[in-house]
Amino acid sequence: MKLHPPRFGRRITATVACFATLSMVLAACGSSDSPTTDLAEGSYPDYYPAEYSEIVEASRDEAPLDVYSIMSAEDWAPLLEGFNQLYPWIEVRTVDLGTTEVFERYYAEAATSAPTADAIVSIAADGWQRFIDRGELQPYQSPELAELPEWSHEWAGDGLYVMSADPFSIVYNETLLPEGAEPPESFADVVQLVQSDPDFYQGKVATYAGDAQWGMFWFIDRKLREKFWDGMRSMGPALRFEASGGAMGEKMVSGEYAIAIYAPLSTIPRGSDSFLKFALMDDAQPISDRSIGITKQAKAPNSAKLLIDFLLSEAGQQLIPLMERVPYRPSVQAAVEETGWWHLSGIIDEVGEDAIVQMGPTPDILIDGEYDRIIDGFAQLQSS
Fold this sequence. Notes:
- By secondary structure, the protein is an alpha/beta fold.
- The chain has 16 helices and 10 strands.
- It has 2 domains: 51-165 and 288-359, 3-Layer(aba) Sandwich (D-Maltodextrin-Binding Protein, domain 2), CATH 3.40.190.10; 167-286 and 363-383, 3-Layer(aba) Sandwich (D-Maltodextrin-Binding Protein, domain 2), CATH 3.40.190.10.
């Protein structure tokens, strides 16, 4: 059985106790094999270069740091609280937008020389690839890069960094599964479950509409090929398509849906984790790279560099679970998993490296016809 992590309400006490004080954070979280880090105001790890102090000092004279992201103010709160313990003079202003809207708004404002984002956060692989191709990222070599796994280095040369690695997988209402049914642990399991009782599951399996997450489905198609499309077609009458994970979650709580596939952790509303469960997929497990980069038009580039480095640092990565996302820095795995939350390495161990579908920028996603191919495939599913 795949891991079912506790939801926010059941892990908040342990996690807040672990991260309440950011100074000496490693010692507070029980790490014995890494040096403790003094996180006093304006400080930074001792492995940073000496000239890093110039970035810190330059940030003091900059305008507020504007971040266009796909995260709410509530999501940002624990991260920015930690960040401002280090850099209290930096005002961070976040704007919650859609995965592609973050780029579209930036392009529109930059075209008219209007004030715009200093940094962008999104999971849209195609959006980031276009941003890179257009030369809109400001290059930055983070001193944290050597502490991060090699797969995350691929886009660092362009100035793009992964802040969290988030699974999209299976959510199911365990009270609605037929008696004796085994909870699904793969896409193939969901297909088999639906085929075992098509009348029961008619209209009870949710997923994203093709245009809502076409990039994710492009990566899944590349991994599973016809197994994906054949499986989706076989579930035809059972499938319902939603524009957001929130809509799926609400309808799962009400009992309208029994299962959601390729859904994020946020699909499970707080307080419903006693009956809504999240399961990993051992045939193709999508991992969404939640990435951050500094824009070419940034008016507070030094502040943006400090924010990126904090998000990648041990202190920042250990705060990622408080926004219900998944950290990936290897050195924080033990501390994070002690709180009952997931770390990417634990997910990989659970499903196997071959099952991981890492979803980051790639030129292939922008090949002519790829978007239309996925959208047309979903149009056929929805019309069947």
